[in-house]
Amino acid sequence: MAVKSHKIRSKRGFQVVKNLTPMRAIRLNCAECVGWNWADVRNCEIETCCFHPFRSGKRPKNDD
After folding, report:
1. Quick check: 57 and 42 in contact, CB under 8 A?
2. Which letter, b or e, does each residue of 26-48 get, where b requires 16 or more Cβ atoms within 10 Å of its Cβ?
3. Which residues are within 8 A (CB) of 55 and not within 5 positions of it... i.e. 6 or more apart?
4. Where do the H-state alpha helices sit in 1-64?
5. Rounded to whole angstroms, how far apart are CA atoms 34 and 40?
6. Which residue of 1, 20, 27, 52 shows the fewest CB atoms closer than 10 Å?
7. What's the rounded mean pLDDT across residues 31-38?
8. How far apart are CA 42 and CA 4, in angstroms?
9. Rounded CA gap, 9 and 18, in Å?
10. What global pTM score does this model have?
11. Backbone CA torsion sign across 13, 42, 48, 62
């Protein structure tokens, strides 16, 4: 379920993002964490982060 609009921090200050889904919110959080360098989001090595499995914008496969 997407939020209609939400104010978030961005590289250029605050901005309003429309249709913010949980996966997009996680991805934007990861981008902020690594200084807005998208390549660093893909190459993140902090496996103890609760968002690490979701950083690519997809839900991880359940291997149960």
Report:
1. no
2. bbbbbbeebeeeeeebeeeeeee
3. 26, 27, 30, 41, 42, 44
4. 22-33, 38-42
5. 6
6. 1
7. 89
8. 27
9. 14
10. 0.73
11. positive
Alpha-carbon distance of 2 to 21, in angstroms, equals 4
Give CA 61 to chain center in angstroms: 18
The residue count for the chain:
64
Q: Compute the C-alpha angle 26/30/35, nearest 5°.
A: 150
Residue 14 neighbours by CB distance under 10 Å: 8
The residues spanned by each domain of the chain are 3-54
